[in-house]
Amino acid sequence: MSLLNVKQLSVRYNETAVVDALSFSIENGESVGLVGESGSGKSQTALALLGLLPRQASVSGSIDFDGTELVAASEETFDEFRARRIGIVFQDPMQALNPYLRIGRQLREILVRHKLAHGAEIDARVIAMLERVGLSDAPRQFHAYPHQLSGGMRQRVMLASALIAEPDLLIGDEPTTALDVTVQAQILELLEEMRDNTALLLITHDLGVVAGHCERMLVLEKGRLVDAGATTSLFASPGHAHTRLLLDAAPRIDRPAELPPVTGASILGIESVSVRYTAFGNEQLHAVHNMSLSLRRGETVAVVGESGSGKSSFVRAVLGLVPMHSGRAVYAGAPLEGPVERRAMAQRRDLQLIFQDPVSALNPHMRVQSIIGEPLLVHEPGLSSRARLEKVVEALEQVGLGDEYLGRYPHELSGGQAQRVAIARALVLEPKVLICDEAVAALDGSVREQVLTLLRKAQEDAGLAIIFISHDLAVVRAISHRVVVLYMGRLVELADNASLFSRPRHPYTRALIDAVPVPNPVIAPKKAPLRGEVPSLLDPPSGCVFHPRCKYVNDICRTTLPTTRDFGGARVACHYANEIDLSI
Amino acid sequence: MSLFANRTISVCGGILLTIAACALAGPWLSPHDYLTTNFDRQLLPPSISGGQVFGTDDLGRDLFVRTMLGVRVTLLVAIVASLVSLVIGVAYGAIAGFVGGRVDAAMMRFVDTLYALPFIFFVILLMVAFERNLLLIFVAIGAVNWLDMARIVRGQTLSLREREFVDAARLMGVSTPRILLHHIAPNLIGVVVVYVTLTIPQAILVESFLSFLGLGIQEPQTSLGALVDAGVKQMEGASWALLIPAGLLALILLCFNFLGDGLRDFFDVRHTN
Description:
The structure holds two protein chains of two kinds.
Chain A: E1 4-13, E2 16-26, E3 31-35, H1 42-50, E4 57-65, E5 68-69, H2 75-81, E6 86-89, H3 93-96, H4 103-113, H5 120-132, H6 138-141, H7 151-163, E7 169-173, H8 181-195, E8 199-204, H9 207-213, E9 216-221, E10 224-230, H10 231-236, H11 241-249, E11 266-278, E12 284-296, E13 300-304, H12 311-319, E14 326-331, E15 334-336, H13 345-350, E16 351-354, H14 358-361, H15 368-379, H16 385-398, H17 415-427, E17 433-437, H18 445-462, E18 465-470, H19 473-479, E19 482-487, E20 490-496, H20 497-502, H21 507-515, H22 555-559, E21 565-567, E22 570-572
Parallel strand pairs in A: 3-8, 3-9, 6-7, 7-8, 13-18, 13-19, 16-17, 17-18
Antiparallel strand pairs in A: 1-2, 1-4, 4-5, 9-10, 11-12, 11-14, 14-15, 19-20, 20-22, 21-22
Helix pairs in contact in A: 4-5, 7-8, 15-16, 15-17, 16-17, 17-18
Chain B: H1 7-29, H2 63-99, H3 101-116, H4 119-129, H5 134-161, H6 164-172, H7 176-213, H8 224-233, H9 240-267, H10 269-272
Helix pairs in contact in B: 1-2, 1-9, 2-3, 2-5, 2-7, 2-8, 2-9, 3-5, 4-5, 5-7, 6-7, 7-8, 7-9, 8-9
């Protein structure tokens, strides 16, 4: 008898089925991965299991949970089941936790509701649970509000709330997608440790996560189950073309890239750039320290680091969107100075930026035609409207979209289409330097591949130089010639692709690489390589800023900031860069 | 989705247009005028056969013509005052919000200062200092309403300025006026339209209030507020003199309020999606 038996489950909005005749089962204690691209119905399935679908949704089929039918079950039944029998961890803990209630109180509610503890025992159990999920000083954190915790800590609290009533099934709906890769590794490890005999349904788009943590996997495409089986066998021989597509699109950090060599001349030089912000109470926040970088025509340089590492501030200062505190940038022999509004039009034409979220980067009240046409209007005012339209259509074709998209508004586009429109807008001016700020982070695997191919092609055709900001090292390995690793606004390591991924010289670089889940179920997931999270920029650690999280830490690290030194082409800021061997 | 597919918008818009059309054409079609007194026909109740559908007032003037005249004045006040607040408020708020920094701080402190002036006191001062006339009422109402509009628009602009499509436009080389006009302004339309439909009833109420106090429009000209004031005095003998203008005023106010609701839905991108 299975714990969960789903038969012919369908979820419909009006007449559109978002989940279509889905059948699967989960045994006690089993871990099952539910994978698919956005819009494939993964989250809708989870919501159906918990009775959390919006009222407009119509559900049919059968969900048998340990002998109880959950389709069309009463709200009282779900009340008994939620948290007590089925726990859930959502993607964004800031949304899932009530910002006005202390976290201890939110956990207490569950125990009180299900009468699992009484009197003083309640608080004791909550505190014990917070300790188990790794909150330091749990009795004090019991009284903390969600906003006082970091993203990783909040997700730990979510995990505590999902498991405190010891449910039989835990659903994780993209539980680590919003987190940095090092924190993701910690949370996944914790999930494994904590769940004991609880069955796990892990919803994710990341095949690396499935490979490391699920015994079986289910593949959804447009609401239909297209493939199911043991993770190892599906990875070895996918049963369905869509599974193969997903597997092929998953970037592999364990495979070297094949990139054309860079032959172009230097085009952009950035010297000792620092960026500072004024925080509350006039405190100076040092977002970027003395960053130097040069870029050649036809070259891709990746900038990586956890959130708060200063990646975005760095490029925004170069572009003139935020003020540069000190340092200088030179483009094609001329300095890039002052805010972007005061720069020469030719410079503004040659440097373009692509944003992470294409939907917010496109004006919701403009049609695609005006969006792509606007830069032409500004830079080539002499162009007739017909010639401009031709160029717009050409740019659209370049990104693989037909002229039927000309009249659409951004909200009528999918995420991938919107990002391609944003790229068309940047490329229509034929820039020389393109800066991609997490440009593929929000995209599905197959769409990400298309966008990366597009960028590579633009690079080959026009010698485009690209600065590629990303937190995803697997993607970085596939496309960049050189990689810069940032930590708390400082350069940690700068090396070419091959040597950085085979012989990293800084412990932080090695940790970032190790934290990336490899989409190969044969390789056991490594232990989370880094403990803790990035310290506050307002109160940086003494000496080497990385020392509190570094396992090679020594006295000198605590007192002295390492200088950046050269090691056979790589630039590394670590006292022991030469002594420790971090080769992979 | 077309504007008139929305039922609230079409019903309320239809009622308002009908009232406006009557107000424009009615006095012209009627054999009576607003000025002529007739002491043989004082305080007659509404009658269709008698040709005076709204009856007459204490001076024997035709109330239909006077009411329609009042609607004209009331709608005119509402529209002009709202336009004043729209133009000044949007421009002022958008500039303050987009430029930001010290300019923003200085501009908004000026708004705060004006806010601190007691409105009725301000109007009475104006009335005392100058002749009572229609223009002054527009000025007084507009001068107050644009403050709210400026604050709302400034807040919206502040958040729009941080959006990435504005950064994208800056990078592309789009000039600041063009960014304001093509990127900020269209995204303000929803909230501005809704706010205007809310200021219209506010302006109508203020005008009626001033007229009721005797500070607004001057006899023999009239407005709905002045008619209500006159009607109150005849309330016991001739209730129609109060009920008709008061009912019309309430109907107009309700229609504008519902219209605002409908337009808010209409301009919500997610709603039309």
